[in-house]
Amino acid sequence: MTDSDDIVKEFLVESYENLDRLDRDLIELEKHPSDREVLASIFRTIHTIKGTSGFLAFSKLEAVTHVGENLLTRLRDGQLQLNPEIATALLAMVDAVRQMLMRIETQGNEGEEDHGELIANLTRLLQPGPEGKSVVQTPKRTAGATGQPLQEREHPPAVEEGAASSVVQTEAAAAGGLSPAPAQKTPEAAAVEAKAGIAAGPSASDSTIRVDVSLLDQLMNLVGELVLARNQILQFTNSTEESGLVATSQRLNLITSELQEGVMKTRMQPIGNIWSKFPRTVRDVAMSCGKRVRIEMSGKETELDKTLIEAIKDPLTHLVRNAVDHGIERPEVRQAAGKDAEGRLFLHAFHEGGQVNIEISDDGAGLNLEKIRNKAIQKGLITADQATRMSEREIVNLIFLPGFSTAEKVTNVSGRGVGLDVVKTHI
Q: Which domain holds residue 199?
């Protein structure tokens, strides 16, 4: 793998993490439009992706993020107020960027789609400036250290400009095998950084490293072999009175146990890593269903093995979508029943009896047993005679049958009868 490949791989990993953060931050900003700190974080993230994609000559990626950054600039400067339409457009930009990153990862290019409709929509949301001029500008280009085009930044604040320059200088130096020159800061930029605590010490990235999961699996297998060898030695030392050998085997036992525990901890991840995607999921499904839903989470720090985290991600996502679509009523129905127009979805994870429990609940109307019974008879899944003899729990369990759905019509969210049966099978 060349230095250039390494830089692209690092860019992809960091950008995926940035996009996940953008999803969370945009949902949070929509709830609290006046939160300047969250808005600044979103702006910095988009600015970083745009700057690095320009350095790596990903022009389509740069074009999409460029227009998105212009829109964020207007929001940051108070010339625009965040509304659902702007939030939806920015989230669509995040989806487009994620799609292009996946193509870069699998195909080595950004794909054929030009995202012209998205760019036009983002541009439309930009109101004319004070002098009637459009905010969108044609980016100027200069040659980078590797001969690749670099975009000249459009009016970023001093602190973001300095950060982006550092990224570009470091990556250009890495490609050429040189030590990066320190970024020059103006007194104003230095003051801003000092105030923000940027220069106050090492960042979180300085104290962490990324490790491939396959390497952790290999270490886990080696530790497993070591445990077997340890057990054989302990069994042998039980039949000997050699004090030196007994003491050494006990020491080996202690070290092996600590090593095994340490390696297992490296595979543990907080369940919040997958829950962090659910606020975006809830927002999208609620908007498509004409509902208002707030998600509340507790126990996000509860840890699970990475393999389990990946295995339950899709089933949990489907349960969340199902709760919003089927469980929580429309605002007018809730108000007529004396409820708050905004529904609530609860996610709770906790340790109990050596196991991790995950609960997903909502404050909706609950399951309509009569509707479930009639739908099952209508679809021929049970007979009318069977239905009269079924207990409430047995009727509830009908929702896990393949092909079963209580939706009145097929939509992009539900109605196909493919869902809870797959969830149950996976779990």
A: 3-203
pTM score, whole prediction: 0.64
**Strand 303-305, strand 355-362: pairing:** unpaired
Half-sphere exposure of 308 (CA within 13 A, CB side): 15
In the chain, how many H helices and how many E strands? 17, 7
Pairing of strands 293-298, 343-352: parallel
- The pLDDT mean for the chain works out to 77
Higher local confidence (pLDDT), 154 or 233 = 233
* 45 and 182, same domain (yes or no): yes
Angle, alpha carbons 134-138-142 (nearest 5°): 150
| 233-247 tens-digit pLDDT | 998 888 888 888 889
Taking the CA atoms of 291, 120, 112 and 49 in sequence, report the sign of the dihedral they define: negative
User: Given this model, what pLDDT does residue 3 score?
Assistant: 62
Q: For residue 203, with 0-12 CB atoms within 10 Å meaning exposed, 13-18 middle and 19 or more buried, which class applies?
A: exposed
Please give the tally of structural domains in the chain.
3
pLDDT for the residue 419: 65
| Cα(279)–Cα(296) distance, integer angstroms | 9
Q: Which residues pair with 356 in a beta bridge?
A: 351
User: What is the C-alpha to C-alpha distance for residues 72 and 87, in angstroms, rounded to an integer?
Assistant: 10
- Bridge partners of 343, per DSSP, are 293
pLDDT at position 72 over 50: yes
